[in-house]
Amino acid sequence: MSGLRPCLDCGRLSRASRCPTHQAELLRRRERARARESGGKRNPQQYRVNRRRILDDCTPATPCGICGEPLGRNRRQWTVDHIVARSLDGSHDLENLRPAHRSCNSSRGRGVKS
Ligand SMILES: [Zn+2]
Ligand SMILES: [Zn+2]
Question: Considering the entire predicted model, what is its pTM?
């Protein structure tokens, strides 16, 4: 038994149901569909809700997602950073958000204001 199957899209033999090329393409498509379903970046309400959920879980000891230093006591310095920038199609999903210092987030620079 070789365990090889033809790719569903192009027929090339591989170990998965699709060749690596089409497997990657499928994942990308699925990721995009999911972002759309969950409102994606066009849903500021989702951003507000998830942002609040993340910040509510934070303590002064929570590390900043950008510099790795603790967030510190000044809550006004706490913000939420998009791991995949919104300009690169990053979503407002919880998995794409992380706590960060406001100063770190704005110095990252490529962010579009929400
Ligand atoms: Zn293929
Ligand atoms: Zn930081």
Answer: 0.57
Give the Å distance between the CA of 69 and the centre of ligand 2. Answer: 6
For residues 14 and 69, membership in a common domain is answered with no
Please give the residue range of the domain that contains residue 75.
41-108
- CB count, 10 Å around CB of 58? 16
Which 3-state string (H, E, C) describes 63-106? Answer: ECCCCCCECCCCHHHEEEEECCCHHHCCCCCHHHEEEEEHHHHH
User: How far, in Å, from the CA of 7 to the mean position of ligand 1?
Assistant: 5
User: How many domains in the chain?
Assistant: 2
Q: How many angstroms separate the alpha carbon of residue 57 from the centre of ligand 2?
A: 17
pLDDT tens profile 51-86? 999 999 999 999 999 999 999 999 999 999 999 988
Identify which has the larger pLDDT, 7 or 87.
7
Find the 61 Cα to ligand 2 centroid distance in Å: 12
